Automatic annotation (TrEMBL):
Gene3D superfamilies: Aspartate Aminotransferase, domain 1, Type I PLP-dependent aspartate aminotransferase-like (Major domain). This is Aminotransferase. The keyword DNA repair does not apply. The lineage of its organism: Bacteria, Bacillati, Bacillota, Bacilli, Bacillales. It comes from Neobacillus mesonae. InterPro entries: Aminotrans_V_dom, Aminotrans_V_PyrdxlP_BS, PyrdxlP-dep_Trfase, PyrdxlP-dep_Trfase_major, PyrdxlP-dep_Trfase_small.
Amino acid sequence: MNLNCNRSLFPILSSHTHLASCSQGAIAIPVSKAIEDYHQSLLNDGTNWGAALKKADAARGLFAQLIGAEKDEVAILCSVSDVFSSIMSTLTDHPKRKGLVFTDIDFPTVGHILYAQKTFKDHLSIVRSFNNEIPLEQYEKKVSNDTLLTCIPHVNYCNGYKQDVKKIADIVHGKGSLLFVDAYQSAGHIPINVKEMRIDMLATGTRKYLLGIPGVAFSYIRKELAKELNPRVTGWMGQEESAAFDLLNPIPAVGTRRFETGTPAFISIYAAYEALRVLLEVGINNIESHLKNLTQFGLQYGLEKGLSLAGPLTIENRTSLMSFHVENAPLVEAKLRERKIIVSARKNVIRIAPHFYNTQDDIQLALDELSQIV
C-alpha cells in the first residue's frame, strides 16, 4: 500500500517538511473540517449538545477499536495529567499495598503527580535506565509484593526507545502490581492491544501521533478493575445518567466512564473522531511497516552524516522517533523551522518523528540540514 498517496490530506506538506509527530502531528483536511463543522454548528444553531455527546461516544468507540478494548472501558478527559491524577485519587485507601514504581524515562508529569501524593511519599521506587534502555531485570528488582501500581511509558519521549509491555506486564502482575501505561508516544503509529498486552490502565492524548489537537485524552481501564475504583477526582459527567443532576445522591457511572469529570472539549473531540477515522482507514499495521523502513534509512543516513544518535541503534527496540544529540537544541529547532523543516527539541536532542505521510526524501532533507547546522 502506498501510504504517501495520502499526503494531499495534509496541507502543511505543500510548504513544509513536517517531522514533529512526537510533539504535534500534522493536521489533515478532514480534521480541520471537523473543527470548522463544530464552530459552524454553534454559529448557525446556537447549541449542539446532543450532537456533541453523540460525537464523543463515537470517538470513544473508535479509540476502543484502535487499542482492542470495549467502548465502556474508555473514558474521555482533557489531558493525560488529568487521567493520571484521577487514577491516583482511587488508590489511596488500598488496605495492604502502598508501593508505587515508576521509571526515569517517564514523562515528567508522572513524577510530579506521584510526588504530590502524601500517602505514598515514603513508598516511591524508581526503575533506572542503562544506556537509554531498561533491562527487564530492573523491574524484577524494583517491583515488590508491596507494589500497588507500576507506571511505565510505552516509548521514551526523548529518544524513541520502546519497551516490551507484555513482558513487563508478566513481571509486575506476578508481584501482584497493577500496570499503568503512558501511550502518548505510541498510540497512532504502533499496534496496541490492551488485552493481549495485559495492560490494566492506559492513557494517551490526541495531539501527537493520533493527529488531533490539544484538549482530549483517552483513558482505558480494564473493565473488572474499573468496577473496583471510585475516583475522588470526578464530576457530573462521571455519574450515571439518572444521577447526573442529583446534587445529594451521586451514583458513579458503570465502567471507566466514571472517571470522566465535567463538560469535555467538544471541538477537540470532533477533531479526534476524524483523526482516528483516518488512522484506522490507513491501518496501524501499515503505518508501522512504513515507518520501520523510514527509520532504518534514517538511522543509517544519520550516522553517515556524522550525527550522534540518542537511543537504540537498531529498529528492534525503538520506534520511528529518531533523536540526535546537539548543543542548544531549541536554537537548532528554530533554525530548521526557518528552513521550513518542523522538528522538535527536547533537552539536548533534536527529535525527528515521521508519520505515514512522510517519505525517505523528508528524512534525508532534514538530516542534511541538521548536519549542516551542527
